[in-house]
Write a structure and sequence with these properties.
Layout: H1 2-18, H2 24-46, E1 50-54, H3 58-70, E2 74-78, H4 81-91, E3 95-101, H5 110-120, E4 126-130, H6 132-135, H7 138-141, E5 147-150, H8 155-164
Parallel strand pairs: 1-2, 1-3, 3-4, 4-5
């Protein structure tokens, strides 16, 4: 919608330059559209970036949510890959990154979850978190341009990883 508005504004300004007298009414409409565009940009900027977290250890969920909130992120925290796919598909590209445990209960593990989400959004940043056993599989199972944090990790390392991605 924003790109459509921007393209329309560019067209109106070019038209206005060529036909100043005929374009007075369009100019008023263009001013209104430009105002609406700026308001929508400000409202998008005021929303904190949303991170999708998939972690099946409840104590860790609370810690991650708190640390991300302190860093200015919003988060959706889920326990399974299936729940995460449902939320991700329902909300589109609203999430700015995926943080997933490698080993989850259910049919989807963290590796599969990230691959499926990358099919829908190839630029989605991914941070894997795992105990020592999953770290060795990261290069073969992880999606490209992802990061891995081994448990236990300092929560600020997650914030740094998300900032880097």
């Amino acid at each position: 919608m924003q790109e459509l508005t921007r393209n329309f504004l560019e067209w109106v300004f070019r038209f206005h330059t060529r036909h100043r007298q005929k374009a007075k009414n369009l100019c008023c409409a263009a001013d209104e559209l430009e105002h609406l565009y700026r308001v929508s940009q400000r409202s998008n900027m005021s929303e904190p970036p949303s991170i999708l977290i998939v972690e099946d250890e409840y104590p860790l969920q609370g810690v991650l949510e708190s640390v991300l909130a302190d860093a200015g992120f919003a988060s959706d925290i889920l326990s399974s890959g299936e729940e995460a796919m449902t939320v991700f598909l329902a909300r589109g590209k609203r999430h700015k990154a995926l943080v997933t445990d490698v080993y989850l209960g259910g049919k989807l593990n963290g590796w599969d979850l990230a691959r499926r989400m990358r099919e829908k959004d190839p630029a989605l940043p991914v941070v894997y978190i795992t105990g020592g056993a999953g770290a060795g599989l990261w290069k073969s199972q992880g999606v490209p341009n992802s990061l891995l944090l081994e448990k236990p990790f300092h929560p600020e390392h997650l914030v740094a990883a998300l900032t880097r991605l």
